[in-house]
Amino acid sequence: MAEKVTTTLSGSAKLEASDRVALKTANGLFEVALRADWELHASRLSQDNAEGADLAHEAACAWASCAEALQDLELMTDVDDRIVVAGHHLQAMLPPAMPEVSDIRMRSATLLQDTKPVWKQDLELAEILQQTGCLLHVHAANLELMSVRKAA
Questions:
Q1: Is residue 51 part of a domain?
Q2: How would DSSP label each residue in the chain?
Q3: When you count CB atoms within 10 A of the terminal residue's CB, does the N or C end of the chain come out lower?
Q4: Does some domain include residue 6?
């Protein structure tokens, strides 16, 4: 008969896991907000008509949800410093801020560079941080494409 094995996590491991979940959640909500912004832009609808207003409302709600998730992360105690930095990078991108594409690219590159040594130590954390860096990269690309389309 097989022995039943029970594994328990220490308090610090639970905290560590919760800060990772919080950043994953913020990343997911940031991605939803990017998609909502893109859908509004790609539709070329004015916010003066009902459909455009609905898309704008969806985008605003998505950004608000992301902001809430980042505020929750900021209020957490015993958060890994690298997660705090990643959260601050995302926070700087939230409306009403309109960062320059060069600033976003610099933040993305810095975060991705800082993630390299983490790969050997902590694969899960490295993946979360890399996702954050990639989301920043996508945000910069979206803004560039939007500006090109507006100019055309």
A1: yes
A2: -PPP------HHHHHHHHHHHHHHHHHHHHHHHHHHHHHHHHHT--TTSHHHHHHHHHHHHHHHHHHHHHHHHHH-SS--HHHHHHHHHHHTTSTT----HHHHHHHHHHHHHHHTTHHHH-HHHHHHHHHHHHHHHHHHHHHHHHHHHHH-
A3: N
A4: no
Residue 41's domain comprises 18-151
User: From first to last of its 152 residues, what are the pLDDT tens digits of the chain?
Assistant: 444 433 344 444 444 479 999 999 999 999 999 999 999 999 999 999 999 999 999 999 999 999 999 999 999 998 999 999 999 999 999 999 889 999 999 999 999 999 999 999 999 999 999 999 999 999 999 999 988 877 66
Number of domains in the chain: 1
